[in-house]
Amino acid sequence: MTGKTRSEKDPLGSLDVPADALYGVQTLRAVQNFPISGLRPLAAFVDATVRIKRAAALTHKKTRRLEGKLADAIVKAADEVLAGKHREHFVVDVYQAGAGTSHNMNCNEVLANRANELLGARRGEYSPVHPNDHVNMAQSTNDVIPTAIRVACVTELEGLKSSFDKLAKVFADKGKEFDDVLKSGRTHLQDAMPIRLGQELAAYAETLRRGMKRVNEAADYLRELGIGGSAVGTGVNVEAAYPALMVKHLSDSAGTKFRVGNDRVQLMQSMGDVAAFSSQLKVLALDLSKIASDLRLMASGPRTGLDEIRLPAVQPGSSIMPGKINPSIPEMVNQVCFQVVGNDTCVSISAEHGQLELNVMMPVIAHNVLQSMMILANTARVLAEKCVKGMEANREQCEYWLERSAALATALAPQIGYARAAELSKQSVKEGVLIRELVKREKVLPDAEIDKVLDMRKMTEIGVPGGAHGGGSAG
């Protein structure tokens, strides 16, 4: 900004606005009123709101409610913003007056000023294009913001899906690569039956695919738009053709399908669809965090931990301990997932705090759900590229722990009964003797059967090691 100002007036009086600002007096009031976080609106939220203004200009040009040259100027201004220009003029803090009136007016003023420039007028004159009369024609903050949230989430969905599809594929590929690596399973962080490292990694892939499927299913509700509801959902000052034309133009602009909402009053009253979508993002984050924690456990060590897998070294792990390498990427993943859980809590509480015809907590809902999408998409991409893709299996260490697992006695239960197998398991731990050696020493089974019963690979597949016997006690 140059330091020069221009005077603008609204119903509350006059203010000096920076001369080169595309925003105007109402935006400046919001900046002065809400110096809260320094956080500005996420790009996806700006884009969605500008798409609505663009669609409205095209709609009103079609219905001849708005003069063609004014509509064209608004559309051109919107296209510039959607191409990445003028972003520094969207300046209202995330934490602002309820419903998002300040954000809506920020967009109206930027587009009006830029449209006027394109028509040869000056910033701040609002003629021939006015932010309320023309850019905001037939709209209210009350139907623009909930629509913008829905449009933004759906528009950003493909990026999220792409990142998680890639992460799932990398896990699946690693599952195939390490399908022959036998290791000890663990339940309650205690020894459990053998499992293949490939089975664990393939299961992670399936977990992520199922999580994204639920996210996609929840997103389908967001495709119903309440634009045209105007102030309270009833459509006052809105032409009958407006909702359908708006949905058409928004679908064309975003490159995805939206639908005209069946009940615009309901879509204005309730943030339930957004809360449900946020909840599925949270569930996806919970699963992703669990996976990251598993990777950290399996990579722990290298001398005093499990050391079953080796993760790529991306940075030194300590400012004091030379040579230390930490699981830095999974640690980041955990932190992101915790943030998503917190975001969802905020969305849930905010969704409940809508009163009567409107939810006034929409600005913080928009920020939290879109931030969750953004950081999850980036995290999945980084985890795939910088961690999972370069993961290696420590086959020798996996074998070492597996042979020492007290849970191998489980395979003996069908042959000798649960009680006797439990005794052998405890004896193995107490004496520090391998199950295989103990069984041979105690002559629990004929030597010819021991290798069949304690076949580690067969224990990782459905079936009874060594064949079913009827003499064992119920387990």
Largest sheet: 2 strands, antiparallel
List the secondary-structure elements in sequence, H or E: EEHHHHHHEEHEHEHHEHHEHHHHHH
Overall structural class, as computed from helix and strand content, comes to mainly alpha
Q: So how many helices?
A: 18
How widely separated are the two ends? 77 Å
Low-confidence runs of at least 5 consecutive residues = 471-475
- The CATH superfamily label of the largest domain reads Fumarase/aspartase (Central domain)
In what range is the share of β-strand residues?
5-15%
Number of strands: 8
- Strands of the largest sheet, in order across it? 1-2
Gross CATH architecture of the largest domain: Up-down Bundle
Rg estimate, integer Å: 30 Å
In total, the number of domains comes to 3
Here the CATH topology of the largest domain equals: Fumarase C, Chain A, domain 2
Mean pLDDT: 95
Could you say which overall geometry the principal axes of the C-alpha atoms support? elongated
CATH top-level class of the largest domain: Mainly Alpha
Helix content: 55-70%
